[in-house]
Amino acid sequence: MDRRPDIHLAGVAKSFAGAIRPVEAVAPVDLVLAGGQMTALVGPSGCGKSTLLRLIAGLEPPSEGRITIGTESPDELRQRAGLAVAFQDAALLPWRSVEGNIALGRALARKPRDPGMIRELMSLVGLSGFERNRPAELSGGMRQRAAIARALAGEPELLLLDEPFAAVDALTRDRLNTELPPLWEARGATSILVTHSVAEAVRLSDRILVLTPRPARIAADIPVPLPRPRGPEVLASEAFRALCTEVTDALRDHQYPESVAAQ
Ligand SMILES: Nc1ncnc2c1ncn2[C@@H]1O[C@H](COP(=O)(O)OP(=O)(O)OP(=O)(O)O)[C@@H](O)[C@H]1O
Questions:
Q1: Span 206-261, pLDDT tens digits
Q2: Which helix (H) or strand (E) holds 65?
Q3: Closest to 192 (Cα-Cα) out of 3, 38, 85
Q4: 26 lines ligand 1 (CB under 6 A)
Q5: What is the ipTM of this complex?
Q6: Could you tell me if the CB of 49 is within 6 A of ligand 1?
Q7: The sheet that has 218-223: what strands, in order across it?
Q8: Who's near 39: CB < 8 A, 6+ residues apart?
Q9: 63 φ, ψ to 5°?
């Protein structure tokens, strides 16, 4: 299997059964995401970003169309633990220690035990000293960081991150935005990030897809040709600011009508 699989979406759409009529979450989408790249999905709340990610993760079947990752279906990739997800609600096993949860990410991916790597990941996400604690003894932000470490522990080919930093304070978020990218870049994973932060999308990704209000369609497809690593100089550059403005303008052009936004 290619370590950097391309993702192909051909006519992929998703509707959910609703009380009165079906809820159309994702309109038919045709898309190729290049292997080894990080793509950010941004768009108004409820537009279908998480649904799109869940379809690619094989956690929901599409109502129409077909998704292939390299040569496999999402289900095949998931079943052999080639993909890892870190979602906003962390979903750690409550009876396992933090270290046990992170090590499980590696075991489930059928990778050899590597306690040194687990400790290193724990230190990277700022959880050293909490190895023996249970998830319930951590704050929401700490649980999120543990979920990111668990996802990375399996060295996945496809890494899916759904607002992974939503419950993390601004300084920690900034540190993780600096220290995590080299880690997943080094592992060569293809990755998709859902975020509400325009600056985070520009800082982390190679390409940004701005989605329309529900049902999600691609409103703008913006490449991010900034050099890496993206340290303070890149973040202070005119090119960085211009990209943030371009993404913000695209979001503004594709808001919900005021009557819907107010509901
Ligand atoms: N399992 C489900 N059953 C019914 N409707 C669903 C289901 N999952 C999502 N939806 C609906 O699909 C739409 C898109 O939801 P989704 O969570 O993908 O949006 P999002 O863009 O990730 O939102 P946010 O930015 O607020 O997290 C919403 O209207 C939501 O209510």
A1: 999 999 998 999 999 999 999 988 989 999 999 999 999 999 999 998 876 654 44
A2: strand 64-69
A3: 38
A4: no
A5: 0.96
A6: yes
A7: 83-86, 158-162, 190-194, 38-42, 207-211, 218-223
A8: 33, 191, 192, 193, 205, 206, 207, 208, 209
A9: -75, -30
Domains, the chain, in order of start with CATH, read 27-82+159-245 (3.40.50.300), 92-155 (no CATH)
Alpha helices in 155-206, H assignment, sequence order: 170-187, 198-204
Residue that has been written with the tokens 């700022």 in this structure: 126
Q: CB of 176 within 8 A of CB of 144?
A: no
Residues 176 and 183: their CA atoms lie apart, in Å, by: 11
Model's pTM, two decimal places? 0.91
The two structure tokens encoding residue 117? 């790597």
Ligand 1 atom, smallest distance to 163 CA: 27
**Under a CB-based contact definition with an 8 Å cutoff, are residues 49 and 216 in contact?**
yes
Strand partners, 192: 39, 160
